Amino acid sequence: MKVIISGGNGQLGQDCLSVLEKKHQVYSFSSRELDITNSEKVKTIFEEILPEVVINCAAYTAVDLCETEKEKCWAVNAEGPEKLARGCKHIKAKLIHISTDYVFDGSKPITQVYNENDQVGPVSQYGQSKLAGEENIRKINADHLIIRTAWLYGISGKNFLKTMLRLAAADSARTLKVVNDQFGSLTWTHSLARQISHLLTSEITGTIHATAEGHSTWYEAATTFLTMMDIPYSIEPCTTADYPTPARRPTNSILENQLLKHEKLNIMAHWRDDLQEFVNRYKKDLLAEL
Ligand SMILES: NC(=O)c1ccc[n+]([C@@H]2O[C@H](COP(=O)([O-])OP(=O)(O)OC[C@H]3O[C@@H](n4cnc5c(N)ncnc54)[C@H](OP(=O)(O)O)[C@@H]3O)[C@@H](O)[C@H]2O)c1
Hints:
Elements: E1 2-6, H1 11-20, E2 25-29, H2 39-49, E3 53-56, H3 70-91, E4 94-100, H4 125-140, E5 144-149, E6 152-153, H5 160-170, E7 176-179, E8 183-184, E9 187-188, H6 189-200, E10 206-209, E11 216-217, H7 218-228, E12 235-238, H8 258-262, H9 271-288
Parallel strand pairs: 1-2, 1-3, 3-4, 4-5, 5-10, 6-9, 7-12
Antiparallel strand pairs: 8-11
């Protein structure tokens, strides 16, 4: 199968390439090579390659910056997916688009989960722009699969776990405060890439959730990771109110892979098992990066 990946240099983009290239003919593009906000470029590349599937891993993911860089945020997260959907419709390709848990407002009582048909209500520019991206794809009515995921980490690029590691390794005596009242499902990009690969040959369409099983807070995620890494740390739990950020985050964004399970297509593992596997595989590389 011929597959195009946009946003190929991001965390998920890189893992999608390494997983999919074993089985498929993959064309991965960085933001410079394929700017998803440029319709002409999208059209030219799609017509040249004629992929069966386009996987959009491109997004403006700096959640706090989205509050001030609204134009860029909306161009990439809302208009970009629409341009890709038009391009896909033109060449009769399927668009697999990655969306986010931040389309929900997070007001469900803690440990209740969000299913695919729960009401959306984003509380940040990032969440609103990603929701608009979803709606734009549905409006174009190309063959599509929208995958909402959450709290991504991987070996490539920047993420919360790498930040925690860098801060703890720099000064283990310094006490860090980490939010302990936001709940979500920490998800390894490699596992999500495997899940996407599993879905490539399926008939599934529409909007689905794909996160690791189980849930944690950011505090639990950070302390579990540093313990697995054998890095000494001093971390205190804090509340969202103690750590104000420009963008609001949902308190509860635990997603349930209800449709994947219903279709017997779910291959996502528990977040702790994935995190242990990530550490087993990359501990040396992560320490070398410091
Ligand atoms: N990270 C998370 O915790 C999280 C949680 C839920 C959902 N998601 C979603 O999952 C997907 C993958 O996230 P990620 O963590 O892999 O993101 P990432 O590491 O920030 O990668 C995003 C990539 O998109 C590229 N990009 C930005 N603007 C572009 C444009 N106009 N055209 C083409 N490419 C562009 C970026 O390139 P440059 O660096 O060159 O700008 C970057 O390589 C995104 O849709 C994101 O919204 C992420």
